[in-house]
Amino acid sequence: MASETARDAEHDEERAVRYAFGLLDSGTRATFERHLADCEHCRELVQIGRDVAARLDAEAPAVDPGPRLRTRIWREIAEESRRSGARPSFWARFLRRPMARQPALLAPIAAVFVVALTLGAVLGRQFTLNEALLVVPLAGSAGGDSHVIIHRSGATEVALRHVADPPPGTVYVAWVRAPDGPPVSAGTYDDGNGTFPLAISALGKIVEITVEAKPGASTPSAAPILSAPVVP
Amino acid sequence: MQQSDNHQSSAPRGDKSSASRLAWFDSLYAAHHRRAFGLALSFLGNPRDAEDTVQEAFLSIWRSQACPDPSGESTLSWLLAIVRNRSIDVLRSRKRKETYPLDPDVDTADSIDVPIEVERRTAQRHAHRILERLPVEQRRVMELVYFEGLTHAEIAEHLNLPLGTVKSRIRLALEHLRLYFPAREDPPISA
Predict the structure, then answer these.
(1) Of A161, A175, A219, B84, which has the highest C-beta tally within 10 A?
(2) Are A232 and A134 in contact (CB under 8 A)?
(3) CB atoms B189 and A29 under 8 Å
(4) CB-hemisphere CA count at 13 Å for A45?
(5) Is the ipTM value over 0.90, yes or no?
(6) In what order do the strands lie in the sheet with A184-189?
(7) Which residues of B touch A56 (CB under 8 A)?
(8) Which chain A residue has its CA at the smallest distance from B55's CA?
(9) pLDDT above 70: percentage of residues in chain A
(10) Domain of B42, in residue numbers
(11) Separation of alpha carbons A136 and B31, rounded Å
(12) For the purposes of burial, counting CB atoms within 10 Å of the CB of A97, is it exposed (0-12), middle (13-18) or buried (19 or more)?
């Protein structure tokens, strides 16, 4: 939708309705909020619009999506926290305070700083090892947005995203094979969304995902639903 | 599209530890996920798309750092507004795919998922039941605002009406609907 920031004042009533229904883009929203401060007419219309939108929303029936949705959300939060290296906001606030206001804390802080430096060196090395060296998209009939990830440490992962869970009674099995060799089982997964380790290095080889009736199969029983040559 | 994050301005930000924020988020999910999923399903008619939409809505709240009362009515309204707007985004994305197929050999008519559309319209009956109380000309414009998120100009073009007529019908429809609903105790609007 085109930005609506150029609209003139005569369209404020439209913007009031769209603001109330949460349909304005962020730039227009900021402009309109300044207008709202001085316009009782628009404030009243926004109040009516919000009220109506909320009432219509609230009429929708409650439907239980099942436990899978909660699992997906919690997994994503855990992954985001891991990626961002989140830490308690207390420390962020504490470190912003001027040190001159808390001299009694300087010695313990110095000790903590030394420990943190040591820990940082260890974690930094770990972070470096975790750095992704190669990310290769998996393609195939399963669709989704999945990848094979090779880390600097050599660890290899399969990140499945937006792939349907395997049908009941089946699992996904990852296979790694050299271009002219037999496939070797490298992991079994029961979820279409998640990041899973590959037991075998895949660099220069082909990774394939198949649906199998049970874990532990020695050869694939069906054509791969996802595959990728793992080459830079 | 705006994700109805106006609510954040009145919410405390980043004042809780990770553990307590997780507990707060868990309470929020437990209190409202069924309503959120029901609303997404009513717009999209497809459980998988509805799941994706509700997941993104909850994650956007998690990322916002806002921590309003998890069981509060205004928090539910905020969450549902996010779900509704994300659902409208998904519907628009579907329409773009229907209108502009990447493969010129694809027949546009065949690319419309008729069962999903039927299921969606069936699930939307809850809101239609309310909108049916409006005169038909007001109902049509409100359906295009609420279900499709169209601008006044788009509605005018869609219904072949003057822009001023669309504006006045929406205004009348909103006032009519508000009279139909019992009074709520919402906080006053502030910029």
Answers:
(1) B84
(2) yes
(3) no
(4) 22
(5) no
(6) A184-189, A171-177, A206-212, A226-229
(7) 127, 130-131, 146
(8) A73
(9) 78
(10) 1-123
(11) 39
(12) exposed
pTM above 0.80, yes or no: no
- Same domain, yes or no: B144 and B106: no
When pLDDT is averaged across residues B38-57 and rounded to a whole number, the result is 91
Domain count, chain B: 2
How many CB atoms sit inside 10 A of residue A23's CB?
26
CB A46 within 8 Å of CB A16: yes
Chain B residues whose CB is inside 8 A of the A64 CB are: 34, 37
Q: Percentages helix, strand, coil for chain B, rounded to the nearest 5? A: 70, 0, 30
Q: Which among B7, B45, B14 is positioned nearest to A50, based on CA atoms?
A: B7
Is there a single domain that holds both residue B81 and residue B11?
Answer: yes
Residue of A52, A79, A93, A193 to mutate, interface with B, max B Cβ within 10 Å: A52
Same domain, B107 and B75: yes
B103 and B119: one domain? yes
Q: CA A205 to CA A208: how far, in whole Å? A: 10
The tokens 């106006």 sit on which residue?
A: B6
CA distance A109 to chain B (A): 21
Residue B7 DSSP symbol? G
Question: Do B69 and B107 belong to one domain?
Answer: yes
Domain shared by B76 and B137, yes or no: no
Measured between alpha carbons, how far is B101 from B166 in angstroms, rounded to an integer?
31
Do B70 and B20 form a contact (C-beta atoms < 8 A)? Answer: no
Residue B56 shares a structural domain with residue B114: yes
Quick one: closest CA in B to A10, which residue? B164
Tell me how far apart the alpha carbons of residues B170 and A13 are, in angstroms, rounded to a whole number: 10
Choose the mutation target among B49, B96, B120, B151 for the interface with A, i.e. most A CBs under 10 Å. B151
Q: How far is CA A76 from the centre of its chain?
A: 5
